[in-house]
Design brief:
This protein has eight helices and no strands. It is mostly helical and about 220 residues long. The protein has one domain. The N terminus is likely disordered.
């Protein structure tokens, strides 16, 4: 019966709004989970940096290797924080989309029509580019197109996301280290040709770094 009514009169606005709200809530919960995971990963990385710093103080013979380890961990922490910022910004965009969609349906209920929103189009297309939300945001985009809340967007209107840099600026790394363990280790010089940490000397530390990297990679995809 509902499909027959939709065929004759078009989609039911109330049902369209329910679908859109459901998809927005689904995406919001997904972002919350990702943000919480990143916060836990940030805390773990900070704890690992503190642990490495303590080892350097207690084992001067391994201090150069530990300095390198701390700087590598600080770079990972910067990437975690960048991803966290990106997701919190996306959460704000999603909340804005939700408010504007509800306002658009309210206007349609009163006036019988609605004007497509360029801002909603930009936010939706930006959120679709997040690997964590691509599928459900594409579904939401189709619902909003059907409801005429947005229109198809040309490629030149799609915002370009900043890519993560392969190498973080050294001063930013120093700031992170100084924030966590003090300025002494942040200012310590690490030789460019310094050999990698031997596996036999610090297997746990390398495992920690690989674990942090793998978790961050999983959260980015």
């Amino acid at each position: 019966m509902q499909s027959i009514k939709s065929f004759i009169w078009g989609p039911d606005p109330a049902e369209q709004l329910r679908k859109c709200n459901s998809l927005i809530r689904q995406n919001s919960r997904q972002l919350d989970r990702q943000i919480n995971d990143l916060e836990r990963l940030e805390n773990k990385t900070k704890a690992t940096i503190k642990s490495a710093s303590s080892r350097a103080a207690n084992r001067p013979s391994a201090s150069k290797n530990t300095q390198l380890e701390v700087r590598l961990l600080a770079r990972e922490l910067l990437r975690i924080r960048k991803q966290h910022t990106r997701l919190t910004t996306s959460k704000a965009q999603l909340e804005s989309v939700g408010m504007q969609v509800r306002e658009a349906f309210a206007v349609r209920k009163i006036q019988g029509s609605v004007k497509a929103s360029t801002e909603v189009m930009r936010n939706v297309n930006s959120l679709i580019k997040l690997p964590q939300l691509t599928g459900t945001m594409e579904h939401l985009r189709k619902e909003l197109l059907t409801a005429q809340i947005i229109e198809e967007m040309s490629e030149d209107m799609v915002p370009v996301e900043d890519e993560f840099e392969d190498e973080e600026a050294e001063e930013e790394v120093d700031k992170v280290i100084s924030e966590i363990v003090g300025s002494k280790m942040a200012n310590a010089e690490v030789p460019v040709d310094m050999p990698e940490v031997p596996v036999a000397e610090a297997p746990v530390e390398e495992a920690n770094l690989e674990d942090i990297r793998s978790r961050l990679f999983a959260l980015q995809n």
